[in-house]
Amino acid sequence: MPEQEWAGVWFRRVMRRDGPEILGDPEGQLPCSLTYVAILPPGLMWAQQGATPGTPKLRHTCEQGDGVGPYGWEFHDGLSFGRQHIQDGALRLTTEFVKRPGGQHGGDWSWRVTVEPQTSGTSALPLVSLFFYVVTDGKEVLVPEVGAKGQLKFISGHSSELGDFRFTLMTPTNPGDTAPKYSSYNVFWSSNPGLPLLTEMVKSRLNSWFQHRPPGASPERYLGLPGSLKWEDKGPSRQGQGQGQFLIQQVTLKVPFSVELVFESGSARGGGSQPLEQLAGSLLTQALESHAEAFREHFEKTFQLKEKGLSPEEQALGQAALSGLLGGIGYFYGQGLVLADMGVEGSEQKVDPALFPPVPLFTAVPSRSFFPRGFLWDEGFHQLVVQRWDPRLTREVLGHWLGLLNADGWIGREQVLGDEARARVPPEFLVQRAAHANPPTLLLPIAHMLEGGDPADFAFLRRAFPRLRAWFSWLHKSQAGPVPLSYRWRGRDPALPTLLNPKTLPSGLDDYPRASHPSANERHLDLRCWVALGARVLVRLAEQLGEAEAAAELGPLAASLEAEESLDELHWAPELGVFADFGNHTRAVQLKPRPPQGLLRVVGRPHPRLQYVDALGYVSLFPMLLRLLDPNSSRLGPLLDVLADSRHLWSPFGLRSLAASSPFYGQRNSEHDPPYWRGAVWLNVNYLALGALYHYGRLDGPHQARAAKLHSELRANVVGNVWRQYQATGFLWEQYSDRDGRGMGCRPFQGWTSLVLLAMAEDY
């Protein structure tokens, strides 16, 4: 999971390999444009020596509460170049990488890590250790060559995927200089304990004192690794016999300094008329600057922020939003835990979850520090940004997600693949349930493909169509509601006495209030709208592909779902004046202290009955958000009214998720569960709202002028607040307070919050 690592540049995969099976598609139904294979996972750790008493604080993976930050990618093109800045107390680290394609195994890669003091003029420059490591799973050959005083000259090796290769850790220098800088070296070589345990292994071995003795300066003590390169000390019978290896080089020196690591592919050097110069030093600097300039040019050509009059600082925010999203893309491989659908909801039959066969997944992630894995409903929003930048990447990602389809047409909403991923996930979220759906947001970038006219997109859609159709068919049938053309999210939490309102995690809106008493009689408005959008997109796609049978089958369903009479009949609540869910509901519920149990739910009068659910918020807007209403619809005006009313959804920082007038607004769902989708401003839904307002503001109708005005005002509020919070904290956030605009939840959250870039570009 490379997106977890602080340096974020130590790629565990290279783009090389032919064959459609990498998409989870052994029959070759999906196209394969970029492909990924296992490589030796290299990585970076660091520690500031002597900053605190005892063992120095070792940095390795992104963690939410470790006090590091801000950090993030300044540039990342998603393919061959990136530059990231990390602030860690008195230190500022810059990590950069560039790829030079060539040969049959992906080409050469070079990395540069620069460590400088956070403020200039610092009198006591800190002593810092960098730890560069390589891990194998036992199938690769590593041959380290050690020089004087524990310094590795290079590591040569071979694997079936990469052929012959060599890693070289260059001698450190002052930033921008070529003269060597005095450094102390330690090396450690051991069996691989498993990726989740690397940090603890290094911490446990960092227990011997050494002297750092630069010429002409006073010596300083530092904690170093006491290992050697004599593998036989670990047991010679295990080396090369399927036991993975862990090889780490510690480099300790005074800041400021730069260190470069060069990966050279043997096949990139074979057969050429002239030998390739090593991608290091001034050549690396030139390559990095050339890629940075190419990034800036492609960014402006794609999003035109400068042309639209946005300031250089706002353009930098847009570049960081895109780069953080691209820098979080990772390749995952492993088995997920799945609980099969027994066909009877709420069945008492006990069934253990099963490990599904191992699958690959190439995907973006919502947050490197908190959600470093694939989420189905997040990914559709991610790809709205990515596809503007590089449509090939989006085709690759969508191909992988569709490759996860099981025989029934189900895709798990959260992909926790392999031991390393499972080590980062709370136990209650490990198991995916094959009866539970998730919003089909992958259809959003699919719809954008239909509008773009790219022949490569069209070729992809032709081959992906059978899986898209199977996925939609499963959603339509498995989530059918109690009456025709109604739908119900399976998987609501049971009505426990500790919960104010049982959650609906499959909806993606988690604690957004639904019917107070879950039942099979519920009708969920947002799900019906997602199915209506799916039917519309699939019909358009079938027609463009000439799939007459599919178009004939899906056409009547799409027409029925888009008919406003049907939507009104099932979801318009006259007493509320908006669209709403329907179910067994009362608003007379609250949490009250009941010692010693704590907060417990108390239900008063009136008692629950079948009725529309008075929970005004994002769900109420879905017919407008997904542009399902005609511009002349009589229902559009009331939705614009509640959207624009500060007593309900409007705030100076964006649309709040739940109306300030709701009894659930800002309420905890349990003693230990703070509000999540109960008032906070979320960028993904605000982006849908901006797109809808822009859409209706360009169509003739009674609400055209008002929609256009609201779009302009909402865009200013959303973009302005994200910009202010980014300036203040250096992060994009998971959500924003509707009261004061401050960032909340986890950070950095450069998943769908990166949609701020498309809002700035007015690209919907």
Question: What does this molecule look like?
Answer:
Mean pLDDT is 90; it is low at 1-39 and 232-241. Helix 4 (376-389) runs antiparallel to helix 5 and helix 8 crosses helix 9. The radius of gyration is 28 Å and the shape is globular. It contains 16 helices and 32 strands. It is α+β, with helices and mostly antiparallel strands. The strands form eleven sheets. Strands 5-6-7-8-17-12-11-10 form an eight-stranded antiparallel beta sheet. Strands 4-3-9-16-13 form a five-stranded antiparallel beta sheet, with no helix packed on it. A three-stranded mixed beta sheet has the order 20-19-24, with no helix packed on it.
Quick rundown:
This protein is of the alpha+beta class. It has 16 helices and 32 strands. It folds into 2 domains: 39-303, Beta-galactosidase, Chain A, domain 5; 312-761, Glycosyltransferase (Alpha/alpha barrel), CATH 1.50.10.10.
Spell out the key features of this protein.
764 residues, alpha+beta, Beta-galactosidase, Chain A, domain 5, Glycosyltransferase, eight-stranded antiparallel sheet, five-stranded antiparallel sheet, 16 helices, 22% strand, membrane, EC 3.2.1.106, signal-anchor
Which structural class fits the helix and strand makeup? alpha+beta
Q: How much β-strand is present in the residues?
A: 15-25%
CATH topology of the largest domain, by name, is: Glycosyltransferase
- Counted by DSSP, the helix tally is 16
**Portion of residues within helices:** 25-40%
Mean pLDDT: 90
Bulk shape = globular
CATH hierarchy, class of the largest domain = Mainly Alpha
Count the beta strands.
Answer: 32
| CATH architecture label of the largest domain | Alpha/alpha barrel
In terms of per-residue confidence, which ranges show pLDDT below 50 for 5 or more consecutive residues? Answer: 1-39, 232-241
Q: How are the strands of the largest sheet arranged?
A: 5-6-7-8-17-12-11-10
Main location: endoplasmic reticulum
Pfam family, one: Glyco_hydro_63
Family: Belongs to the glycosyl hydrolase 63 family.
Protein name: Mannosyl-oligosaccharide glucosidase
